[in-house]
Specification:
The chain is built from 4 helices and 2 strands. By secondary structure, it is mostly helical. The chain has a two-stranded antiparallel sheet with strand order 1-2. The chain is elongated and about 45 Å long.
């Protein structure tokens, strides 16, 4: 049986960097929101979920895991939820940066998830 071949390196690099940035932005947004007051558990949960899956997806990309398409799909969905959560929390610099990072990661991950994996002999 042939092994799956990962997408092109430039696509993997873009998704990798976007996931790392979204991970950092979500963690920063959580800290910022908790210091600012009493955010809803749902918003904080969405940001933490996004941070975790972005970190996992970036690791799968780095290691060349054949499961990367699956995690990228989940990552795109969680990034979109994080955008909604950051938007609900307000519009300051930290939250705006989180929205932008998560939108970028969602787009890269959606693209990665939809790429067909080619088989090599």
């Amino acid at each position: 049986m042939s092994e799956p071949r990962l997408p092109p390196a430039k696509d993997l690099r873009g998704a990798f960097l976007a996931c790392l940035r979204a991970h950092e932005a979500c963690e920063e947004a959580v800290t910022h929101a908790l210091r600012a007051g009493e955010p809803g558990d749902e918003c904080i949960g969405a940001l933490l979920d996004c941070a975790d899956v972005c970190r996992t997806t970036s690791r799968y990309i780095r290691h060349g895991s054949p499961l990367v398409r699956g995690t990228a799909s989940v990552c795109a969905e969680l990034c979109e939820r994080a955008v909604e959560s950051c938007t609900a929390l307000g519009k300051d610099g930290v939250l705006t940066a989180c929205v932008e990072a998560c939108r970028r990661a969602a787009a890269w991950c959606r693209r990665l998830a939809e790429m067909p994996l080619e088989r090599t002999a």
